[in-house]
Amino acid sequence: MPTTKRNDTAEALRLALVSFDAQIAELRETRAQLATLIDQPSADSAVKVAAPRKRRLSAEVRAKISATAKARWAKERRAKAKTQKPKKAAKKTQSEAKTSKTPVATAKAKKSPAKKETEKKRGR
């Protein structure tokens, strides 16, 4: 390895990379030689073997996983509900008061019976 100035870190890194590349090339050559001894194709060959396709889960397995997950979450919800403090009654009464409001009557329902009769005579 050639010597460089101590302050020139970029040059030192460049020389280290060159050295590593030389070592990698040497190791690849050694691997290829060993692979030929055991009749194994080298990793650098142009013909690449396709990676095996991932298999999809069957509907049966997906349903089983789903059921297991649902059971686990239900168990956690039950445990969480037991540890929580009960809500105050005041909040409950407020929500009930909001729901007990009467619906707003329509404009036709508010008309008096006398007006309805006059509208019928006019043909409306």
SS-derived structural category: mainly alpha
Task: Indicate the low-confidence ranges by residue numbers.
Answer: none
Order of helices and strands: HHHHH
From the N-terminal CA to the C-terminal CA, the straight-line distance is 107 Å
Helix proportion: 55-70%
Q: Which band does the percent of strand residues land in? A: under 5%
Record field, number of beta strands: 0
Quick overview of this protein structure:
The chain has 124 residues and is mainly alpha-helical. It is built from 5 helices and no strands.
List the helices and strands and how they pair.
Elements: H1 9-37, H2 59-83, H3 89-99, H4 107-110, H5 113-122
Which features would summarize this protein structure in a list?
mainly alpha; 64% helix; 0% strand
Care to describe what's here?
The protein is mainly alpha-helical. Helix content is 64%, strand content 0%. It is built from five helices and no strands. It has helices at 9-37, 59-83, 89-99, 107-110, 113-122. The longest helix has 29 residues, at 9-37.
